[in-house]
Hints:
The chain is an all-alpha fold. Helices cover about 65% and strands about 0% of the residues. The protein has helices spanning about 1-15, 20-25, 30-35, 50-55, 60, 65-85, 90-105, 110-120, 130-150, 150-170, 170-180, 190-195, 200-225, 230-245, 255-270, 275-295, 325-330, 345-350; strands at about 295-300, 310.
Amino acid sequence: MHGIGKKIKELRLKNDMTQEKLADYLGVSYQSVSKWETGITSPDLSLIVPIARLFKVTTDELFDFNESAEESRRADLKRRYDETFKTGDIKVRFEVCEEAVREYPGDMKWLNDHAWAVWCDALSIPDDAEYSAQREKAIAEFRKVIENCDNDEIKGNAIVGIVECLNGKGAHDEARQYAELYPDTQISADEKRSLIISCLTGEEKVVKSQERLLNKFEELLNNILFGECGAEKRAFAETIIKLFIPDGNYLTFHHHLYMICLSEAREEIRDGDYDKAVCAMRKAREHAIALDKIKGEYLFTAPLFNKVKFNTDEWYKTGTGTQLDDFIALFDFPAYSPLKAHKDYEKLISRNSLE
């Protein structure tokens, strides 16, 4: 509290008052006043209001509190903190956070930033014991933020931090408990699923990671193939399917390949090239038949998804019959009906899977 001592001296001189006179007014020794003014000690809390009244100032003024100066100080700390993300200087970031938590105790935003600074600093420590001690310090601060912060954004950020730290020390069950607490207002269901998966271990983690990757891949394909898609999009979608499923055991992705072929056929029909359209429809028919042949529970065999189980009863299929039935029904729609006059039409609508 060196600041209050300087302020007392400033007010005393302004009022043409000696240390002895001030001490006499307050019932303390002049040595006590001298120690206040030199920053050796600070006035007892019981003297704060009497001192303010004596000098006819507010307690805020006595503590040299100025709102604009306060805002300026906060802005300066934030500026210096943000600058470290451009310079990459973890040491300076740590120092700024140290200042901030000292000056603003109970400020959960700064405490969270400080916890992250401690954790980042720990990652550069080669000594295992010192590294572990720093990590525990970060965990304690993240935990304090989570327990006391009512701001979901700050709380969520602290949860990410404590999950990282706990996973790093092998406390995966505790990490998962915190991951489950992530405020739904600040995260998508998929992002929360990813955070929880990071807390898993062994086979369970592999399975859940593959399931999430499969869902993201299917989402990507659905976005590419939504509505009408041109030749470039179709080629891209087909290429990445073959990259992700190099063994050709497409399973659910027969549906995407089916949709690619139908899109190609519609485009060729619009261009008047019915032979190419029939060629595309023939491929679509093959994918429809492949889908119909897969029954019950099935496993992908492609390396990226070889832990993912499916039950074909849960697959999305158009119509109420087989995929081949749905394919045949397409020729009654205007987009495909011109092919009824093609010489290979009867083969296309045959229910014989060998044709």
